[in-house]
Amino acid sequence: ARLYRLAAEQGDATGQLDYALCFVHGNGVKQDDGLGVHWLRLAADQNHVLAQYHMGNVHFLGRGVPRDDREATRWCRLAAEQGHSGAQHNLATLCISGRGVPQDIGEAARYYHLAAEQ
After folding, report:
1. In this structure, are residues 58 and 76 in contact, taking their beta carbons and an 8 Å threshold?
2. What is the residue-wise DSSP string for 102-116?
3. CB under 8 Å, gap of 24 or more: what pairs does 85-90 form?
């Protein structure tokens, strides 16, 4: 976790993601969802696709942040538009259920198809 922290503190998005995941999973540091989300957001704000995917998940689950389907959808869409298959699948599921977005079966089918192509 120490090396990830050094990279994270220097603004490296991958280091921020890795350091965030240390907090989320309690690897080398005390588990802390709030600190995990702090570092995830810094990486996600730098357009790091995997960090955006994880931001969608934490908002969907309410880990370290209040549960918020609209924020989950926003972050999933950012990652999905960069081609992240997990985010495409999650966004499709949100579109089918109408959670965080108006229900849209056509949009769900499009994202499921994009995810399946990978």
Report:
1. no
2. ---HHHHHHHHHHHH
3. 85/114, 85/115, 85/118, 86/53, 86/115, 87/49, 87/52, 87/53, 87/56, 88/112, 88/114, 88/115, 89/115, 90/53, 90/56, 90/57, 90/60
In whole angstroms, give the CA distance from residue 91 to residue 85: 10
Residue type, 73: T
Whole-number pLDDT of residue 85:
97
Report pLDDT digits (tens) over 60-103: 999 999 999 999 999 999 999 999 999 999 999 999 999 999 99
pTM: 0.94
CB 43 within 8 A of CB 51: yes
The structure tokens listed for 68 are 């918020």
Q: Give the whole-angstrom CA distance, residue 25 versus residue 51.
A: 15
